[in-house]
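dumping this here so i dont lose it again. seq + smiles for 1,3-dihydroxyacetonephosphate
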Amino acid sequence: MRKPIIAGNWKMNKLAGDGARFLLNVREQLPEAEKVEAVVCAPYIHLPLLTEAARDFPVGIAAQNMHFEDSGAFTGEVSPEMLKDILVDYVVLGHSERREMFGETDESVNQKVKAAFNHEMTPIVCVGESLEQRENNETFTFVEKQVKAGLAGLTEEQAKQVVIAYEPIWAIGTGKTATSEEANDVCAHIRQVLKDTFSEDVSEAIRIQYGGSVKPANIDELLSQSDIDGALVGGASLEEDSFVKLVEAGANA
Ligand SMILES: O=C(CO)COP(=O)(O)O
């Protein structure tokens, strides 16, 4: 049984103090950590306040990106060592917005995934096809390529700990959710790819989230699918009530 993981991706929203208040307000309402893993993915400058606010409460804190080197002449970048130093446990890698707007590639995602493991952080690796690719029936092959390249060179033990977020680009922020069957089909395909690439143990252990217009009204149905183990939620994770409902849905899945 894979523990559901519900992550709120705040993207470039909220001021740091508002983020910390959000956590202080929701933390007592969140279900026990045995039932669900709750994560908030926040802008870099919020992270020290958030890891402090989340201390002793069942919510993990994620960065939305990082560099793969520990230090050096990379102006404007933040390193895995810096994140670990302020107690960040997760890092979102290869979000489609970073791939589209900031030049992230499968190769850089792979370097960052390895760097995350070097610093004992859990990578949440995002994959997903564009509308054009879906219409051309390229979804499976495209997502397969992203998964294989993103996880290349990992040991089985590392691969088991990766979280994959399947986020069809056409469903992000559009209000258009993939139907739960469509989402599950791709997640099942990803699991098959993991089985072929690593082993059955890896494919059974790894958690696959769905992302793209998830909200309290549709999360139960998505989580009821065989291969969807959680959600990566943008817009609907910004409100406290809605975030708590999403995490509760994970606990009840
Ligand atoms: O990109 C997403 C999460 O990473 C999804 O965003 P929305 O939930 O706003 O569609």
